[in-house]
C-alpha cells in the first residue's frame, strides 16, 4: 500500500469537499481546491522532510 | 395607488428573509437536518443544490469505503476510553453508512442489544492501513456533519 497515494487521495477528497462547501462559483471552487490541495500535499511532504533528522 | 407606490411597498425576497430572521421564525426543519445526516447529500438535494449534493454524497461515500477497505474501525464507545466517544461521534456522522456497517458487523439484534459498550466496530489493529482507515472514517463523518450545518445555513437563508 502506497502511503503517499493514500495521503494524496485524502487531500483530494477533503479539498473537493471544502471547495464546494465554502465557494459557490466555479472559479472560486477551483482556486480554493488548488490552494487547499497543494497546501496539504506539499505541506505534508515538507513536514515529513523536516522530521527526517529526528528519531 | 400608483404603480411606483405599489412597487416600493413590495418586499424583496432578501428583505422577507431578514424579517423572518428577526422574528426567529426562519429555522431549518429537524426532519431535513436528520435526513441530511442520515443520507449524505439529501439535505442539499431537497434544497435544490443538486450538484453540491452529488459531490458531498460522493466524497463522503468514497472516504468511508476507503476507510473500510483499509481495515479501519468504525468508532464505538468503550468504557475505559473517554476518547472513544469522540471517535464514535465522528464515525456516526456518516449516517446510514456507519449504521449499515455496524449492522453488518453486529447484526440488528447485536446493534440494539449491545448498545453502547458491546458493539464491534470491525477493523484490524494489526493491519498496515488501520490508522489510515480510521482517519478516512473520522474525516468522512465530520465532513458529513459539516454538510448538515451547511444545510441548516441554507435553509435559514444565511447562505446561498
From TrEMBL, chain A:
Protein name, UniProt field: Uncharacterized protein
TM regions (residue ranges): 6-25, 32-52
Organism classification: Bacteria, Pseudomonadati, Acidobacteriota, Thermoanaerobaculia, Thermoanaerobaculales
Keywords: Membrane, Transmembrane, Transmembrane helix
Keyword Membrane included in the entry's annotation: yes
UniProtKB/TrEMBL annotation, chain B:
Alphabetical list of InterPro entries matching this protein: DUF6677 (IPR046499)
Keywords (A to Z) from UniProt: Membrane, Transmembrane, Transmembrane helix
DUF6677 domain ranges (all copies): 33-155
Membrane-spanning residues: 53-71, 83-104
Taxonomic placement: Bacteria, Pseudomonadati, Acidobacteriota, Thermoanaerobaculia, Thermoanaerobaculales
Residue segments, region Disordered: 1-22
Statement: the UniProt record of this protein carries the keyword Translocase: no
Protein name per the record: DUF6677 domain-containing protein
Species the sequence originates in: Candidatus Sulfomarinibacter kjeldsenii
Amino acid at each position: 500500500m502506497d502511503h503517499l497515494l493514500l495521503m494524496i487521495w485524502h487531500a483530494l477528497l477533503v479539498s473537493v469537499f471544502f471547495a464546494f462547501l465554502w465557494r459557490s462559483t466555479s472559479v472560486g471552487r477551483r482556486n480554493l481546491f488548488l490552494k487547499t490541495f497543494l497546501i496539504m500535499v506539499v505541506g505534508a511532504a515538507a513536514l515529513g522532510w523536516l522530521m527526517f533528522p529526528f528519531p | 395607488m400608483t404603480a411606483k407606490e405599489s412597487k416600493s411597498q413590495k418586499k424583496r425576497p432578501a428583505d422577507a428573509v431578514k424579517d423572518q430572521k428577526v422574528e426567529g421564525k426562519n429555522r431549518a426543519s429537524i426532519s431535513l437536518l436528520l435526513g441530511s445526516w442520515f443520507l449524505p447529500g439529501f439535505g442539499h438535494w431537497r434544497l435544490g443544490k443538486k450538484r453540491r449534493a452529488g459531490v458531498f454524497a460522493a466524497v463522503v461515500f468514497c472516504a468511508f469505503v476507503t476507510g473500510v477497505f483499509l481495515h479501519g474501525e468504525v468508532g464505538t464507545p468503550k468504557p475505559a476510553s473517554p476518547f472513544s466517544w469522540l471517535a464514535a461521534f465522528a464515525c456516526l456522522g456518516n449516517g446510514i453508512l456507519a449504521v449499515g456497517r455496524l449492522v453488518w458487523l453486529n447484526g440488528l439484534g447485536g446493534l440494539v442489544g449491545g448498545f453502547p459498550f458491546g458493539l464491534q466496530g470491525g477493523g484490524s489493529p494489526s493491519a498496515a492501513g488501520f490508522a489510515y482507515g480510521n482517519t478516512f472514517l473520522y474525516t468522512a463523518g465530520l465532513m458529513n456533519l459539516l454538510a448538515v450545518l451547511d444545510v441548516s445555513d441554507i435553509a435559514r437563508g444565511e447562505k446561498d
